[in-house]
Automatic annotation (TrEMBL):
Organism domain of life: Eukaryota
Native species: Hypholoma sublateritium (strain FD-334 SS-4)
Designated name of the protein: Muconate cycloisomerase 1
Molecular functions per Gene Ontology: 6-phosphogluconolactonase activity
Residues in the signal sequence: none
Family per similarity comment: Belongs to the cycloisomerase 2 family.
């Protein structure tokens, strides 16, 4: 199958999922470019479609509801955000709309309903920008949120190094009325109310359930569709914590380890795991609520492979059995993941019983000139179906870029499904 066949398959929107291809957009920690790809389930292959010049390494990506507009962060200096239009023509491409300056390097960006504002966070600051309702581009900043005292902002580190101890994400409840920001260094999750103008009003700071000296490092959060449960991955202590959401705060409910029993490292080990990210599965025709929560953690060195864990959830968003390891599916990632091991999920069909897992890899071996597997598609069909399997990766040993002049990806940072 060549690239043209992939495009033709994608155009057949009424075909069954197994005859379609699904588009992927990825950034890289080691390239300024974005990479447009297509995954063919029938061929079980990933095809390179286009390399798009962009504005810095580590483009963290977010999309609007129709996935026609993309918003991206980067590690470039001076700090900025960029907006893009997805042209679903034949062939697909990506067109830059505009870029706007921000105060500090951002690590995360989101555009919640009603899609009139983009919210980004990173290190000492977070920002709110209006979205142009005609073009979808970024407009002026209407608010800056501080995670350091205002008197310290001038001297605060605003480079990507501040992401190690500053703000690291932002997520909204399904009602879009509340936002939550995990802050790695303060061991807190900051809670905000969003007003009718799109501004965030601070409500409370929720401390680690393991105490101020736990050094948890809350990194990323997701919120159950019922709006009652928040999940948080901790970078340093490798937990996923579940909280009950109230109108003004969070109450810790329960926790799970991101690492299977027996994989923990001794306290004096020179290696360590680094909790990374999490995603909820999509409800399907047979399931009105997410069936699982999927998390990742990375290894601190190439010798230490990371872990992907799939946790069973009940209809209320609670872990189904805290005492049973058999309610967790564990998958050891092919490498440490480097600075990546980020995921995005796509339901295999309307039943919600299977999922394609997009996994990015920035391990030193993967990112070498001859490296393979910067982007992988994993498959999971549910409990008792043989576990997680790798079905495609790009680049692969057998893969050659269709455009020999195009830049080859060397390690992927964040990738999203565009379909």
């Amino acid at each position: 199958m060549d690239v043209q066949d992939v495009f033709q398959l994608q155009a057949l929107n009424t075909s069954s999922p197994q005859t379609l291809s699904y588009h992927i957009l990825s950034g890289s920690f080691r390239s300024f470019s974005l990479f447009l790809l297509a995954f063919s389930p029938s061929e079980r292959s990933i095809f390179h479609l286009k390399t798009i010049p962009a504005f810095g390494p580590h483009q963290y990506l977010a999309a609007n509801q129709h996935k026609t507009r993309i918003y991206a962060t980067s590690w470039a200096l001076p700090p900025s955000l960029s907006s893009w239009e997805v042209e679903r023509s034949n062939p697909w491409t990506l067109m830059h709309l505009n870029s706007v300056p921000i105060t500090a390097t951002s690590s995360y960006i989101t555009v919640p309903p009603p899609y009139r504002h983009v919210y980004s966070t990173g290190g000492p600051t977070g920002e709110v920008h209006r979205v142009n309702q005609v073009t979808g581009g970024l407009e002026e900043k209407i608010q800056q949120i501080l995670f350091v005292p205002e008197s310290e902002l001038g001297s605060a580190d605003k480079t990507r190094k501040a992401l190690r101890y500053g703000s690291h994400g932002i997520e909204f409840t399904p009602s879009h009325d509340y936002a939550f920001v995990p802050v790695v260094g303060t061991q807190t999750i900051e809670m905000y109310r969003r007003d009718s103008r799109g501004y965030l009003v601070h409500l409370s700071s929720i401390k680690s359930p393991r105490g101020e000296n736990a050094n948890d490092g809350p990194r990323h959060v997701k919120i159950h569709p019922n709006g009652k449960v928040l999940y948080c991955v901790t970078e340093h202590s490798n937990h996923v914590d579940a909280y009950q959401i109230s109108p003004t705060s969070l109450t810790h409910i329960e926790s799970r380890s991101l690492i299977p029993k027996g994989a923990e490292l001794p306290d004096d080990s020179k290696y360590h795991f680094r909790g990374d990210t999490l995603m909820l599965s999509q409800p399907g025709a047979n399931t009105l609520h997410p069936r699982v929560l999927i998390t990742t953690t990375r290894g601190s060195a190439p010798e230490l492979r990371g872990w992907l864990s799939i946790f069973s959830l009940d209809e209320f968003g609670r872990f189904t059995d805290l005492s049973a390891e058999d309610t967790v599916e564990r998958y050891q990632t092919p490498t440490s993941g480097g600075k990546a091991n980020a995921i995005d999920l796509l339901a295999k069909d309307m039943s919600g019983l299977g999922v394609w897992i997009l996994l990015t890899d920035d391990d030193e071996v993967t990112a070498s000139a001859s490296g393979t597997g910067a982007i992988r598609v994993l498959e999971w069909d549910g409990w008792g179906t043989g576990g997680v399997k790798v079905v495609a990766e790009w680049p692969s040993d057998a893969d050659e870029l269709q455009d020999s002049s195009a830049e080859k990806i060397q390690g992927a940072s964040h990738a999203i499904w565009l379909d």
